[in-house]
Amino acid sequence: MKGAIMFRILITFTLFFGAPASAHVGHVGEFAGHDHWVAGAALGAALAVSIWGALKGKKNAEEAEAQEDSEAEEETA
Q1: For the CA atoms of the chain, what is the radius of gyration?
Q2: Which UniProt keywords apply (predicted)?
Q3: Cα(73)–Cα(77) distance, rounded to whole angstroms?
Q4: Domain residue extents for the chain
């Protein structure tokens, strides 16, 4: 009995608050009046920043590794 009542409440609630589904991030720009190129540019910028951060982090990791190696050599000497 409780399950049927809850089901009806849930269906009624979802009917009142329905919204169109967005297929992918490209459609977000359509809500603002732009086209897909805006979302593509934003995704491209995010990709560029992430690659830059990964390369920068890799450089810092190599420097830290070199420093650890030199410290290990000093300890053994």
Answers
A1: 27
A2: Membrane, Transmembrane, Transmembrane helix
A3: 6
A4: 36-77
